[in-house]
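re: ur question from earlier - yeah i can do the single chain one, its not a big deal. heres the input i used so u can compare w yours
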Amino acid sequence: MAASRRRGRITVIAAVAAVTLTVGLTTGCDAVNKALDCVRTADAIADSVTDLQQAVENAANDPTQTDASLDSIEKNLDKIGDRTDDADVNKAVDDLDAAVSNVRTAVRNGDDTPDITPVTRAAGELTKVCTP
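and the output i got, formated as tokens:
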């Protein structure tokens, strides 16, 4: 009897998943595409934040890498901001943009090892709100 219950549960789970997928697809491909764009761009930003961490660690060797990493993050933020109407995503984009600006200002003011904790925190929040 345990095996038949398990098969029954699997059938119910499969049916619920199929209905959820169908409802998701019928609510509009545009929303799905926007969500996927958000996830992809958030992933690219996460890579850029990793690059930023490495650039800050190696700032003495090549200070231009910090600027290049910040530029990459800002470019990806523009992509997300242009593609979404979601308030949570827009707030996360604004927070990350402010954190990037603060790091850029610190670097311009001569800080070779700026605190990038707010950038990593904001990038993590953006990843959370972009993940469906």
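Helices lie at 2-26, 29-57, 64-83, 87-108, 117-130. not sure if urs matches, ping me
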